[in-house]
């Protein structure tokens, strides 16, 4: 019977689609955002973004030295 087999396969596919994603977006965000602006506490991913942030948001201030 193709109808029974199709129904079972459709239920299996729907169950796979409806599963909750593994992990949390909050956890992934915390891992990715490692640098924060000391003035406004904005979280950034790397030193280049911090320099760009300072250029646009804090033009009168000098960005902190890059940690190596």
UniProtKB/TrEMBL annotation:
<dbReference type="InterPro" id="IPR026939">
    <property type="entry name" value="ZNF706/At2g23090_sf"/>
</dbReference>
<keyword id="KW-0862">Zinc</keyword>
<dbReference type="InterPro" id="IPR013087">
    <property type="entry name" value="Znf_C2H2_type"/>
</dbReference>
<dbReference type="InterPro" id="IPR045230">
    <property type="entry name" value="MBS1/2-like"/>
</dbReference>
<dbReference type="GO" id="GO:0005737">
    <property type="term" value="C:cytoplasm"/>
</dbReference>
<keyword id="KW-0539">Nucleus</keyword>
<keyword id="KW-0963">Cytoplasm</keyword>
<feature type="compositionally biased region" description="Basic and acidic residues">
    <location>
        <begin position="1"/>
        <end position="19"/>
    </location>
</feature>
<feature type="domain" description="C2H2-type">
    <location>
        <begin position="35"/>
        <end position="63"/>
    </location>
</feature>
<feature type="region of interest" description="Disordered">
    <location>
        <begin position="49"/>
        <end position="68"/>
    </location>
</feature>
<keyword id="KW-0863">Zinc-finger</keyword>
<protein>
    <submittedName>
        <fullName>Putative transcription factor C2H2 family</fullName>
    </submittedName>
</protein>
<feature type="compositionally biased region" description="Basic and acidic residues">
    <location>
        <begin position="50"/>
        <end position="68"/>
    </location>
</feature>
<keyword id="KW-0479">Metal-binding</keyword>
<dbReference type="GO" id="GO:0008270">
    <property type="term" value="F:zinc ion binding"/>
</dbReference>
<dbReference type="GO" id="GO:0005634">
    <property type="term" value="C:nucleus"/>
</dbReference>
<feature type="region of interest" description="Disordered">
    <location>
        <begin position="1"/>
        <end position="25"/>
    </location>
</feature>
<dbReference type="Pfam" id="PF12874">
    <property type="entry name" value="zf-met"/>
</dbReference>
């Amino acid at each position: 019977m193709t109808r029974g087999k199709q129904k079972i396969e459709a239920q299996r596919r729907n169950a796979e689609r409806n599963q909750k994603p593994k992990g949390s977006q909050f956890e992934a965000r915390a891992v990715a955002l490692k640098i924060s602006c000391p003035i406004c506490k904005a979280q950034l991913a790397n030193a280049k973004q911090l320099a760009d942030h300072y250029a646009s948001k804090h033009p009168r201030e000098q960005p902190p030295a890059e940690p190596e």
